[in-house]
Specification:
Chain A: InterPro entries: AAA+_ATPase, ABC_transporter-like_ATP-bd, ABC_transporter-like_CS, ABC_transporter_ATP-bind, P-loop_NTPase. Chain A: This is ABC transporter ATP-binding protein. The complex is a heterodimer. Chain A is α/β, with parallel strands linked by helices. Chain A is built from eight helices and nine strands. The chains are: A alpha/beta, B mainly alpha.
Amino acid sequence: MSPAPGITLAGRASIDGAPLFAPLGLTLPAGRWTCLLGGSGVGKSTVLRLICGLPTGARFDGTITATDAAPIPDRVAYMAQDDLLLPWASVCDNIRLGARLRGQPADADRLAHILGRVGLSDHAHKKPGALSGGQRQRVALARTLMEDKPIILLDEPFSALDAQTRAAMQELAVELLRGRTVLVVTHDPGEAARLGHAILVLTAGGVTPCPPPAAAIPRPVDDLETLQCQAALLRQLRDAA
Amino acid sequence: MKYASGLVAVGFALVLWQGIVTLTGLPKFILPGPLLVAETWWTNRLLIAEHTLITAMEVLIGLGIGTALGIASAIYLASSRIGRLVIQPVLVFTQALPVFALAPILTLWLGFGLGSKIAMAVLIIYFPVTSSFCDGLMRTPQGLLDLSQTMQAGRWRTLWLIRIPAALPSLGSGIRLAAVYAPIGAVIGEWVGASRGLGYLMLLANGRAKTDLMFAAMLTLGVFAVLLHLLVHLATRHLGASLEERG
């Protein structure tokens, strides 16, 4: 994996002339987790899709640059709320989908290692339909890891999971994605408070940075400062609405 | 359960049919009863089998060629914007032409043998297969396409590994529809000009007022069409499963 760069996005977006978000600037520090928190429809997924180089349906005027000035889209691994597993392919084939789509051989040792780390070694040959929601999302995380990219973009990755599975997945993701530049788009103040080295609140008025709690991520769910941060973030979202 | 209730319905229809014939005393060249039709079917079983074989061959070959052409066209249309813009309207227009109107000219071009009937079957099933499969290929979930784009996937690999497998259920329904239409195409072809096949036999029997033989041939065609539908239903279910195994 190449070293993880920082990323800066500056600009505005509009859909059919109506502004989606006002001119804003946001920075993802290199090798750190940044949480972009916002309600529905403020354009937070658009920000993530712009960085991925995915179609957004919005017109973006501005720049997206990496600190090392190299192109971004081919250094990105993407994970969404929907696990996006191919129902007809085995867990293994889903994890090495990227290599198969590029026509490259997949590293079998690496695959076995990653399967072990997400705790799915016994499920390698099952189809996604035979797995629970949490297991499926672990397969999606393994697929993201298998890509071995320095920039990881997570679009509401854990919001479809129940509370305890979500907490476990957050911890696993932090452990496995250490050292990469991670952007988590979320509507959950608790998730932002737990996971962000940097926390950015996106509202119609623009981006507001929020000071993160002092503890290292993933912050304990019962950490007082984290809970206070969560409350402050929720207040900020409600005031903006 | 489904089949049991189907058999009961068929039995009821046969009893009703025989009842009408017996009560009204209709002459047998107008409406023969099911008992007479069964008897005629049995005495002419070799003749009917011979003609069924011909029609079955036309239908199966037509189904194979039509499906293959449909699959190829759908893949082309799904991967080419220009193809969709230029060729799709032409396809829809050709569907507005009644296939029946083409039968005489096909007979003129391809003769009285199998060729013109196979061509009719191909023409009639090509569109449903193309259109359902192409619809399926165009409806790949956007999330999967996003994922493959972030993975720097090639266009053809995305097609082969994601879009085609995701569209197989649509292909299955297209082929099932084709299996219902294919016998219609073949029989229309036989009506217009043939010396063999169930359609020819029906026309022949009708012309000689052998209405019982006509009914026997028609019911044989019906049973064949239902069997073909069942067979194709099973086969397309298997097709989906085997491609799932491939992964």
